[in-house]
Specification:
The chain is an alpha+beta fold. It is about 40% helix and about 20% strand. Helix 8 runs antiparallel to helix 9. It starts with a helix and ends with a strand.
């Protein structure tokens, strides 16, 4: 074979072409077998599952053909770039990924959830030792009538979700004297520290949502309420100052400030910039021989109603027999999926984003390998925890990255030996957690060595 042809077959172009041979169907089968194997070796308790979505931006040009890379609301704020969505199902107790899905970046979360429910829950229910009753914790982005109709018809699947306070303002404005501290682990810690004022409060009731009566819990977080109150007061004062300035311009009959509708329009645009509703202040205009006059006053009822909603969150579930504290703890556990997404965007650990592939087949393969990496990183954390070492995966990977080694072959031996430099204390702890050690000659020895 000519020399240039030989090296051409080893080039990066040929390497990436091989990825195109892995079809979407093949990749699904590979992923299924991978998660089945993870289930066998870790045996997580799948009674409570966490599902959430994220997206990854890409620099794919607008004219490049792609079904996956589409423009949408990007969570990194790069709305001008095309993006790809990723859904991830995680076991609550172990934080191990159990299922993932890739979808177009312009598809709404609720529609994607509807599209994968059959496959996702079918796979989880088919795994060995799966509990008879499964609860999935989701975000309000997944809320849709059809989705809950599907769950209601499924004998094994139950849900816990959040609900927008915007669509339940009366409920969110429930007076705090109807709340009581929740029996959560964090609250118990606050009480031990003498910080009872920081305790999360809860109010439990019932209501009809998505065609059936559900258990509803309204929570109040003091820290969030204080932060929202501070921000609200600042914006409310900014609105007042702007109105004072507007009133002065109207009074002075400044150019472009003599038309009532034009002034109202300017006020509305200013409120939109602050993400505040214009109705918080009531504007009044009168016309006299001297010209236009303007006055305004605060809508005290609306302001107090907004303040009553600060720090409030609404949780809805069909687990009517669960304790309030259990429902709240399960809902709070959604951070575990968000933590997996955070790791995926860490360049030193997974480096999912930005996605630099430009064909859908390669994008799917890339995201699968990233989910595999997230899974292995979590397995490392679990191994360390089992060995009594509570260290973050960032610390573990940084330590092991600095453990240098060489491969050496003795004369007459076909098997090379891996020789390591003397491990530090923390590096030795990691090796020990996996059943390895370094002998006196610097050779890595396995569990049976």
């Amino acid at each position: 074979m000519p020399r240039h042809n030989f090296f051409g077959k080893l080039g990066s172009k040929r390497y990436w072409e091989k990825w195109d041979r892995v079809s979407e169907i093949d990749l699904r089968e590979i992923a299924r077998k991978f998660f089945e194997r993870i289930w066998q070796v870790e045996a997580p308790s799948a009674d409570c599952l966490l599902f959430d979505t994220t997206n990854y931006y890409t620099y794919i040009a607008s004219q490049t053909d792609s079904d996956l890379a589409q423009r949408g609301k990007n969570k990194a704020g790069k709305h001008h770039l095309r993006q790809i969505g990723l859904g991830l199902l995680v076991a609550r107790d172990s934080r191990l990924p159990l299922y993932y899905s890739v979808y177009p970046g312009n598809l709404h979360d609720s529609k994607h959830f509807a599209a994968v429910m059959d496959e996702m829950f079918g796979m989880v229910c088919g795994l060995n030792k799966t509990k008879e009753r499964l609860t999935v914790v989701i975000d309000k982005g997944m809320n849709a009538d059809d989705n809950y109709a599907w769950i209601d018809e499924h004998s094994r699947i139950h849900f816990i979700t959040t609900y927008s306070t915007y669509f339940a303002q009366d409920l969110a404005a429930t007076p705090l004297d109807r709340f009581e501290p929740a029996e959560t682990a964090e609250n118990r810690q606050y009480i031990e520290e003498g910080r009872e004022d920081e305790c999360l409060l809860a109010y439990r009731t019932k209501g009809e949502y998505w065609g059936k009566e559900r258990t509803v819990i309204v929570t109040h977080t003091p820290a969030s309420a204080r932060k929202q109150a501070y921000t609200f007061a600042e914006k409310l004062e900014a609105m007042r100052q702007e109105l004072l300035d507007m009133r002065a311009k109207v009074r002075d009959k400044a150019p472009h400030w003599r038309n009532e509708e034009a002034v109202r329009e300017r006020y509305i645009r200013f409120c939109e910039q602050l993400h505040m509703v214009p109705q918080l202040y009531e504007l009044e205009f009168t016309q006299s021989p001297d010209g236009l006059a303007m006055s305004f006053r605060k809508n005290v009822y609306l302001v107090s109603r907004k303040q009553a909603m600060f720090g409030k969150n609404i949780i809805i579930t069909d687990n009517t027999d669960w304790l309030t504290s259990d429902i709240i703890e399960a809902n709070l556990a959604r951070w575990q999926v968000e933590d997996r997404f955070r790791l995926s965007k860490d360049d030193d650990l997974v480096g999912t984003s930005p996605i630099r592939h430009w064909t859908d087949s390669k994008i799917r393969c890339h995201l699968f390998t990233c989910v595999v990496a997230m899974t292995y990183l979590r397995r490392i954390e679990l191994k360390m925890a089992a060995a009594g070492r509570t260290r973050s995966i960032e610390e573990v990977m940084d330590d092991m990255r600095h453990l240098h080694h060489v491969l050496s072959a003795r004369k007459g031996s076909r098997t090379p030996e891996r020789r390591l430099e003397t491990p530090s204390k923390t590096q030795s702890e990691v090796l020990s957690a996996f059943g390895y050690h370094v002998d006196k000659s610097g050779v890595l020895q396995g569990p049976a060595g």
